[in-house]
C-alpha cells in the first residue's frame, strides 16, 4: 500500500516495482542516485539556458526581413532554425522528463528521498545556476518547471 504521509524507513519502492530497497546499503545507494539525478537536472537546466541565450543572440544578429508584406505578422514568419535552438529544445525535453521523474520519486513520501532530492537540487543550483549576470532567466523553484 502506498504511503500518503511522510515516513522514515529504509523500505522504499521508487518509481517502479523492481526498484525496492530493503537494507541500508540499497537505501543509501538509492538516495545517492536521487541526489546525483537532481544535481544533473540543474546542470541540464544551466546548459539549456545558455544554449537558449546563444540561440537568441544568434537570432538577433540575423538581418530583419523586409516588410514587403505588412499583413504577415512577425509571429507567423518562418525563422531560421539553428543548431543551438534545436539543442535547447532537446535539452528542455530531457530536463522536463528528469524533473517529472524526480517529482514522482518525491511522491513516494519517503523522508530520505525527499531530503536527498532537495539537497541535490540545492547543490546543483549552487554549482551551476547561481551566477546569472549575463543570462536573464525566469527562476522557478519547482524541479519540473
UniProtKB/TrEMBL annotation:
A Pfam short name: Ctr
Membrane topology: Multi-pass membrane protein
Taxonomy, superkingdom: Eukaryota
Transmembrane portions of the chain: 24-44, 86-106, 112-128
Family of the protein in this entry: Belongs to the copper transporter (Ctr) (TC 1.A.56) family. SLC31A subfamily.
Gene Ontology terms for molecular function: copper ion transmembrane transporter activity
Alphabetized UniProt keyword annotations: Copper, Copper transport, Ion transport, Membrane, Transmembrane, Transmembrane helix, Transport
KW Transmembrane helix (keyword) present: yes
Entry's localization field: Membrane
Gene Ontology CC: plasma membrane
Protein name per UniProt: Copper transport protein
InterPro entries per record: Cop_transporter (IPR007274)
Amino acid at each position: 500500500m502506498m504511503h500518503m504521509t511522510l515516513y522514515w524507513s529504509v523500505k522504499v519502492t521508487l518509481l517502479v516495482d523492481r526498484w525496492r530497497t530493503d537494507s541500508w546499503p540499497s537505501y543509501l545507494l538509492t538516495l545517492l542516485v536521487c541526489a546525483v539525478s537532481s544535481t544533473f537536472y540543474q546542470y541540464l537546466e544551466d546548459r539549456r539556458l545558455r544554449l537558449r541565450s546563444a540561440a537568441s543572440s544568434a537570432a538577433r544578429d540575423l538581418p530583419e526581413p523586409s516588410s514587403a508584406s505588412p499583413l504577415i505578422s512577425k509571429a507567423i514568419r518562418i525563422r531560421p532554425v539553428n543548431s543551438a535552438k534545436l539543442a535547447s529544445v532537446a535539452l528542455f525535453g530531457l530536463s522536463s522528463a528528469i524533473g517529472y521523474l524526480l517529482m514522482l520519486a518525491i511522491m513516494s513520501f519517503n523522508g530520505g528521498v525527499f531530503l536527498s532530492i532537495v539537497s541535490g537540487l540545492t547543490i546543483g543550483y549552487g554549482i551551476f545556476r547561481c551566477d546569472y549576470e549575463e543570462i536573464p532567466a525566469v527562476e522557478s523553484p519547482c524541479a519540473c518547471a
